[in-house]
Amino acid sequence: HKSIFIRTDRGIDRPEDLRGKTIATPGYSSSSLTWIRGMLEDEYGVTPQDVTWVVSKKDSSAEVSGSVSKQENVIPEGLTVVEGPPGLDESDLLKTGEVDALFHAIEPRAFVEGDPIVARLFPDSRQAERASFAKTGIFPIMHAVAVRNDVIDENPWLPEAVFKAYSKAKQMNQQMLQKLGWAMVSLPWFGQEFEETRELMGDNYWPYGIAPNRKTLETLFRYSYEQGLASRELTIEELFHPSTLEFTESVV
Prior knowledge:
Layout: E1 4-7, E2 22-25, H1 31-44, E3 52-55, H2 62-65, E4 80-83, H3 90-95, E5 101-103, H4 109-112, E6 118-120, H5 125-136, H6 149-154, H7 158-185, H8 190-201, H9 214-226, H10 236-239
Parallel strand pairs: 2-3, 2-5, 3-4
Antiparallel strand pairs: 1-5, 1-6
């Protein structure tokens, strides 16, 4: 929800107002945009076919997020997609009025600089995202850890060892946040935010393993298929090594 930016002079006050508008993005098929489009269709009935997509030639946040990869520039059939003007990044397109809105996981330069013509579609995106989680139970997943099958065949103990290492590191970090989070991140109300997050999402709010993430993963597979990014709806069993399907965390 926090990754949808709009021009304040285009009459966009709610998600449904995006229909018929032009939306910029530096990478159409990125994970973040797949989640955004899926959320808009599930919760507000706005489909990718309802808008015109403008793919920018440049990305104002490339230094932070890296260059747009080939995998982030897959354009499915059945959409209205045009290339942005040369020399303009996604922030320029929004600021100059070439487009009405922008989907981007990173805050565009114009927003960071405080340009009044650019705002978030959801002004209180924190509350919108909390409400969405409370309704759906979905905490969007952006990345995964991959290991080659031949390496697993030679070292069958490796997947569980990697899983336990990541889990242990996360637990150590969360324990430190609980004990001394305010000092680590230098935010005055960090303690309250930490408590409210655990109240809504549970103590293990970054759950690892298939079981607690099955709904989220299967939703992403559905979005990928519905949006034309996958030729069929994938399954967890075919994407994850059999030995990993039952991994569980020992939360302390």
